[in-house]
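Entry: Arginine--tRNA ligase
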Amino acid sequence: MNLFTDIRSLVIESLDTMVSDGTLPAGLDLRNVAVEPPRDAAHGDMATNAAMVLAKAAKKKPRDIADALAAKLVADDRITSAEVAGPGFLNIRLATSIWQDIPKSVLDSGLDFGRSDMGQGLKVNVEYVSANPTGPLHVGHTRGAVFGDALASLLDFAGYDVTREYYINDGGGQVDVLARSVYLRYLEAHGQEVAFPDGTYPGDYLIETGKALKDKVGDAYVDQPEDVWLQEVRTFSTDAMMVLIRADLKSLGVVMDKFYSEKSLYGTGRIEAAISELDGKGLIYQGVLEPPKGKKPEDWEPREQTLFKSTEHGDDVDRPVKKSDGAWTYFAPDIAYHYDKVDRGFDMLIDVFGADHGGYVKRMKAAVSALSDGRVPLDIKLTQLVKLFKDGQEFKMSKRAGTFVTLRDVVDLVGADVTRFVMLTRKNDAPLDFDFAKVLEQSKDNPVFYVQYANARICSTLRKAVVEGIAIDDATLGAADLTLLADGAQIMVAKKLAEWPRLVDIAARTHEPHRVAFYLYDLASDLHGLYHMGKSNDNLRFVNTSNQSATHANLALARAVSIVISAGLGILGVTPAQEMR
């Protein structure tokens, strides 16, 4: 159930009636008519912009439309008042019984409360992490992993058919660098002293890989030229790193549906097929690009290349797909990869990139638009950097120096649940400070603790009720006399519960899972406030052995909060706490 959708349907029905009785002209576009919470809760429970968005087309004053619409709405038993405000906004108040029924709706639906069919089963591919397979995942990858995984779960909850995908960047020169670095560790495993030249990976994480290579091939590659061992060591090293990466992801609770190898695009005709598809649309040509911005002409040598007319699909400049020497650019396999996604029948594509890929957004969107003839939208979400702090000092990381902070380091220090929740306490494109002391702090200022404590507090209360011989099953609580939930604080919690289905739809539509974390914090805050009021008001006390009817009503409300918190945390990939330790 989505109460805001229900009331919007009532508004639309009322507008249709106004058309039928001649108050409004026929043919009005009602798509922009919205029903949402008012900016100031004191103004009402909901507000609609109907009069404002229809006035021009209807050739009427907004207030005249609002007055007529208000008269229609108050005829419905759910509406107690509809008041015109300002130039024509309509503030709506609902009957108290509507809010009192919310806990039962939650209890009846369980964890499916708020689940939506908005996605209508459309196939969505969410590609995230996709780190180069050159070492363990670091904290920057952690944010993209958490964001992408939570977004995938959110879309699933909203009715989409979601595929989680990891693109293995194993086709470029960085994997050759990995192979050379592993070879050095291999020689080291044979007792040789080695030095890591600039451009190699000196991290200790490759020591075991070098030993494993020795165990596999013995001394077959010792002191051999690169052409003897490079390809074999490249494959061996990439496989070893992907085992490590899969384990890292699993420690964070991330499980991919598909791993797609960039290398599989080379020598198979797939890149050629994608470029041929664009060529058939008249979008490939031979040309010379203008010098890059900021470059002096004498620093730039004009070369004829094979170019993609990406400007015809919203890009700023056309992009090269093949170099003057006949080699593919980095962009070409990415085009082929997304062509494969389109060919697999996805209705929507979402890529989660690091902030350093901002310059790639327009060209990639142009490619997908061209390949799908505009049918398949591509949304690219950029995740900003994470700064780690411990003991007041900022961690620095450098993958090449081997001193970076890994995903596993963070999970080992604070746990997967804390890591995931904290990574979603800021919008993806905003920088995030991750302070190890603060994320473990037991206070209201720590959102993950505050939300978990709310659920643990409810679970503790339910256990106390059992000790007192009070039935707490959902069927019993759903049958409670919910008209006893009459206090303003109780109604406020019920109203917050009623926002959950709407929040899910908005977060899924905007691809913003952080909204779920924000909502859960607000819901937890309302719950904690109500709990403390019960210490001085027996009617609000969750367990009051002298008034079992009030207890069942209060427990029904508390249990409904626990269900929604559990559903929200489930979307974020966080296990709800049953007790706090």
